[in-house]
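Appendix B. Chain record.
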Amino acid sequence: MTHSELTLEKRIEAILFGLDAHMSVFADDLKGNVIERDADHVFESASTIKIFILGCLFDLAKRKEADLEEMLEYREDFYVNGSGMLNAMQPGTRLRAVDAATLMIICSDNIATNMLIDYLGIGRINDFILRIGCGHTRLNRMLRSDTWGEMLGAVTPRDMGRFFALLGKRQLVGPEEDAQMLGIFRNQHYNKMLTGQLPLYYLDAEESGADPELIWTATKSGSMDACRNDGGLIHTPYGEYVLVLMCTDFHNKLEFDAHPAFLYGQQISRTLFDQYLALEGRFR
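Structure tokens predicted for this chain:
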């Protein structure tokens, strides 16, 4: 029997004791065991709001109210600096909606995000967010280079966790749509908070020769001056579990791999990973 001072929650508290910031945690083993720490705290969403835009696109496409094959044009007024590839290309570039969505997730492309917000509409995106039961999450605006100080969106760890729990159960939009979205999330480039201490042997299967289906992640991160967020699904031979980490109120606003939010988040992620494997697919 687990000692009362060595429960998973207590061990997470012990890890975070030295962090000079606020970190919230939500984890779900999808078998009835949830681990949480201030999971209803409302954070600046930063780029984590993009998961809901992706979900809305696939939901509306299933309803025949949008089309994954629709050609979207990069207009000059969609330009925004920051992450992505399209800011190195010229206005007039045209992409299928599904290709813009892929760029929005895998390299967090801000211009592609604006193209999709314009196509879907903020109202329909927020309607989708409410429809899947994420009542504390909202997209406020399109991305603009001169409005980084204004809140892009609001999100809670529990809401982001709910999105990925539904996706993990293939109950977000539909089995086929969820499988396609999962494939996009698996190619996401920026996941250092969740994966930084996971065994590289499994995550870099191309170099190690490991089975690429043994351990993989499907995630989305987000980062602004106000937050460092990361969350998604971690797949193992025993199933998948959800982990969301969100950090705010830190002093160092610079973006670097050794940021305390990333280092402490990585310790929590590894603790949960080891527990899940040790119990063969459960947190308890």
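Further analysis of this model is presented in Appendix C.
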